[in-house]
């Protein structure tokens, strides 16, 4: 039966003492009338206190879990004493490896008989003392008036600061205002003043002042505003329930962001989410848990939704949230859904109807010939941590697969290779259906705890995945190493390889080009090399063939319509994404825009909103793509990469992004012997033309590369400079104006580069120069210290190595010591970081050092430019 609670009801099931966290709520608690019997109390403790499990511990602690509240009335002194001793005895009897049971604030307050003391010290005590003071409100209210007045008289004056500074820390010194509030002796104006008097320096760090200080204010809105304004953080799960009770629906956004914060570890986030799930059971919580399905606490969110279907169906949900509810609804029968339908909210009705329609689609006959033939040699059914019924229907030839058939597909997905059944399904299934199914498999695996032994749910799902699978998995792969999940990220790369579409390979290529985790970047690069070799290409050739168009048309543009006005978006030659207004004849007019303008009165507001959002999304994707391609083509110039005329005409000149990005780049036309015979640029028709705008023909057997400044005479460089100026073209990287350098005359046949800086170089300047010119960092050893950067040169089959002392550690550059550049030398072959070690003579003794005369002039110039940058 659908819940009869209000759609926004959070359904909080808490004790009266916890309700006291909300000062705007009047709380009255009756005295305990049950006689105290220690034997009965012990039996109750054994029955209601659930023993902690180590797997649930965070930092060695677990919250107290009971099947019912220990107290809902004011306990007698005997009963309080018994429970205090009970928890002390449990703590004393626990093994060192056992998790420590953390009591909630309200229970600590009750067991103490109320907070009477005003003085506390230290940061940790502050995070406990404030909520305990508020939870004491029912106990303090029950005291005789004389005792209440005595407590009030003992408190420090409101003018005495709660936070004082001692060396390096802001200490919390007393709970006076909170005890006043618990006694009903603090006005709203006084409460605001107390918080405004907290020193700004204490508020600047998110850990000195607990957000529960805001509970002193009168309304949920004020409490949330104070915490948001000062950017305070909920740091421990013990603060979660007090915050939820005191702020209600107003505080859910902040709580959600705290749980899903990148900086919060998965165990801690789970403790936060479980704290919410334990007390919140109403329809108003459904959006909260639906939003958490794509986070590190998906397991808790899934469990909550599975146990609260009647509440979720009563909630007001956006279409996106309602869509996320479908896996939970699929675990019900069609009959159950039909029975629920009359009572569901308007926002969930369409979702229920859609799931019913899925269930009513006819099943693929079990005796279908191709199925019977392919569903052979299946492995035994694998262990799965989620209900297969949650998965969306897999539609094949107009029929959905039955539960048995879905089970067989899952068996096939658990193999390391592309099973014949998976191949048959992939070839016959609707692309959107199998793509959605693949996403659901890996999402369900994540939500159920991402058991490593079941990682085939990720890799195997790739065989059925398509564009949505790639779009949802790629950002997770980039994040996982930062969450100590490198191996999961590597599995993700395997999943993308199994998808095998251009979009999937583009995703791997993007990770190989730019990701902040070196090991993942290296593995992605290796994957691209392997895929290229399997297809008979070099990695560069493969990347040319899979390059995304970024949503642009064949001429490198895209039109966005506001109804009355239309805008043309494009990639400018400097690499920036821009747009211009189109006139009545569809000609660009007016100034160049970096973003689409706000709609005016003549525009269609909905179309304008959609266009602005679409442009922003396209710009984000294109900006990342352009950054990678700019670096790739600059390296092509430095490394002297060359294209066949056919490849250049097929994949470079007409490409929607490259044709505009590279419009100002000058190309080198070479004959079959590699001699430069002409130079050219790409015009608007994707044709190679010279300085006179005449077409260029590449000699038979010839090649096309990117001109380096060293290839050009001053006269030719000047001529091209005039052409680019006339057409208002620029280049995304320095080409005609690129500084050039030559080896010092003293170099001769010496192995170490001559003329390197003799003094120490600031770490930031050293790393900045290496980064600007495309050098790679060597491995980090011994507590994360590295002392090598290197520049592989595949086109010349050699590697440049720079060795510096005393090395740097994997941390902030601002904290690194200045470095001494010890030597820069050349070794034969394209080497990896593992081959170079620390870079000193003992580490590279098995490698062949080469004289600098073996280094092409362009490479030598770039190396010297790097060194010059360090000393500049």
Please provide a written account of the structure:
There is one protein chain. With about 850 residues, the protein is α+β, with helices and mostly antiparallel strands. Helix content is about 45%, strand content about 10%. It contains 38 helices and 21 strands. Strands 16, 17, 18, 19, 20 and 21 form a six-stranded antiparallel sheet that branches. A hairpin with a 4-residue loop joins strand 18 and strand 19. Helix 27 (about 465-480) packs antiparallel against helix 28 (about 485-500) and helix 28 runs antiparallel to helix 29. The radius of gyration is 34 Å and the shape is globular. The chain starts with 15 loop residues before the first helix and ends with a helix.
Features:
21 strands, 6 domains, single chain, 38 helices, DUF4132 domain-containing protein, alpha+beta, five-stranded antiparallel sheet, DUF4132, 872 residues, globular
Q: How large is the count of helical segments?
A: 38
Total beta strand runs: 21
Note poorly predicted spans. 116-126
Radius of gyration: 34 Å
What is the general shape?
A: globular
Biggest β-sheet strands, sense, barrel: 6 strands, antiparallel
Distance, first to last CA:
75 Å
Supply the number of structural domains: 6
Structural class, by secondary structure, is: alpha+beta
Proportion of strand residues:
5-15%
Helix coverage percent: 40-55%
The average pLDDT is: 91
């Amino acid at each position: 039966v659908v819940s009869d609670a209000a759609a926004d009801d959070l359904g909080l099931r808490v004790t009266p003492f916890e309700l006291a966290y909300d000062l705007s709520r009047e709380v009255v608690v009756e005295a305990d009338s049950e006689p105290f019997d220690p034997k009965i109390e012990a039996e109750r403790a054994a029955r209601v206190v659930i023993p902690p499990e180590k797997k649930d511990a965070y930092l060695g602690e677990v919250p107290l879990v009971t099947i019912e509240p220990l107290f809902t009335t004011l306990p007698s002194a005997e009963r309080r004493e018994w429970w205090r001793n009970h928890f002390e005895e449990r703590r004393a009897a626990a093994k060192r490896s056992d998790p420590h049971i953390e009591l909630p604030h309200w229970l600590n307050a009750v067991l103490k008989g109320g907070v009477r003391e005003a003085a506390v010290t230290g940061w940790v005590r502050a995070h406990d003392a404030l909520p305990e003071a508020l939870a004491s409100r029912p106990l303090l209210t029950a005291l005789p008036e004389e005792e209440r007045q005595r407590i009030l008289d003992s408190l420090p004056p409101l003018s005495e600061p709660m936070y004082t500074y001692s060396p390096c820390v802001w200490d919390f010194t007393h709970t006076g205002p909170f005890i006043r509030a618990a006694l009903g002796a603090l006005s709203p104006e006084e409460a605001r003043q107390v918080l405004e008097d907290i020193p700004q320096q204490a508020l600047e760090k998110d850990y000195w002042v607990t957000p529960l200080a805001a509970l002193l204010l009168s309304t949920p809105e004020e409490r949330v505003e104070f915490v948001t304004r000062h950017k305070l953080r909920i740091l421990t799960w013990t603060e979660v329930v007090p915050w939820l009770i005191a702020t209600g629906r107003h505080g859910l956004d902040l709580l959600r962001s705290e749980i899903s914060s990148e900086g919060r570890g998965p165990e801690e986030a789970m403790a936060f989410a479980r704290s919410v799930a334990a007390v919140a059971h109403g329809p108003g919580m459904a959006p909260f848990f639906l939003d958490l399905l794509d986070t590190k606490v998906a397991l808790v969110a899934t469990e909550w939704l599975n146990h609260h279907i009647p509440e979720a169906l009563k909630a007001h949900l956006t279409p996106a949230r309602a869509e996320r509810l479908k896996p939970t609804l699929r675990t019900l029968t069609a009959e159950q859904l039909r029975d629920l339908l009359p009572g569901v909210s308007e926002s969930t009705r369409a979702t229920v109807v859609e799931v019913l329609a899925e269930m009513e689609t006819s099943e693929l006959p079990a005796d279908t010939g191709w199925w019977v033939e392919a569903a052979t040699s299946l492995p035994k059914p694998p262990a799965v941590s989620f209900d297969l019924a949650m998965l969306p229907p897999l539609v094949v030839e107009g029929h959905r697969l039955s539960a048995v058939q879905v089970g067989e597909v899952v068996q096939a997905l658990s193999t390391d290779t592309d099973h014949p059944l998976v191949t048959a399904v992939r070839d016959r299934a609707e692309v959107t259906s199998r793509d959605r199914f693949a996403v659901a498999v890996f999402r369900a695996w994540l939500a159920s705890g991402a058991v490593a032994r079941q990682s085939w749910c990720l890799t195997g799902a790739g065989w059925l995945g398509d564009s949505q699978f790639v779009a949802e998995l790629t950002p997770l792969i980039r994040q996982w190493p930062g969450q100590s999940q490198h191996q999961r990220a590597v599995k993700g790369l395997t999943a993308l390889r199994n998808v095998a579409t251009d979009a999937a390979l583009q995703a791997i290529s993007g990770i190989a080009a730019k990701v902040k985790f070196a090991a993942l970047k290296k593995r992605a690069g290796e994957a691209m090399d392997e895929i290229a070799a399997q297809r008979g290409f070099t990695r560069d050739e493969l990347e040319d063939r899979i390059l995304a168009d970024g949503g642009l048309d064949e001429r490198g543009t895209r039109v966005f319509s506001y109804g009355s006005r239309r805008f043309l978006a494009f990639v400018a030659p400097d690499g920036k994404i821009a747009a211009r207004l189109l006139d009545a004849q569809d000609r660009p007019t007016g100034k160049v825009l970096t973003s689409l303008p706000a709609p005016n009165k003549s525009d269609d507001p909905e179309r304008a909103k959609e266009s602005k959002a679409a442009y922003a999304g396209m710009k984000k994707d294109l900006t990342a793509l352009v950054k990678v391609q700019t670096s790739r083509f600059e390296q092509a110039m430095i490394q002297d990469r060359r294209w066949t005329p056919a490849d250049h005409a097929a994949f470079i000149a007409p490409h929607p992004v490259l044709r505009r990005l590279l419009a100002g780049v000058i190309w080198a036309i070479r004959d079959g012997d590699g001699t430069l015979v002409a130079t050219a640029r790409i015009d608007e028709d994707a044709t190679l033309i010279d300085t006179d705008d005449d077409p260029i023909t590449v000699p038979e057997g010839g090649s096309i590369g990117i001109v380096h400044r060293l290839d050009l005479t001053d006269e030719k460089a000047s001529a091209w400079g005039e052409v680019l100026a006339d057409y208002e073209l620029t280049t995304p990287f320095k080409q005609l104006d690129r500084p050039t350098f030559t080896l010092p005359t003293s170099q001769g046949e010496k192995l170490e580069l001559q003329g390197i800086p003799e003094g120490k170089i600031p770490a930031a300047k050293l790393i900045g120069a290496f980064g600007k010119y495309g050098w790679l960092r060597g491995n980090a050893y011994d507590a994360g210290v590295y002392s090598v950067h290197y520049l592989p040169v595949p086109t010349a089959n050699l590697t440049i190595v720079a060795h510096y002392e005393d090395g740097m550690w994997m941390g902030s550059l601002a904290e690194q010591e200045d470095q001494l550049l010890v030597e820069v030398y050349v070794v034969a072959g394209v080497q990896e970081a593992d081959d170079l070690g620390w870079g000193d003579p003992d580490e590279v003794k098995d490698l062949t050092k080469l004289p600098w005369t073996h280094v092409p002039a362009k490479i030598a110039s770039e190396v010297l430019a790097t060194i010059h940058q360090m000393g500049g």
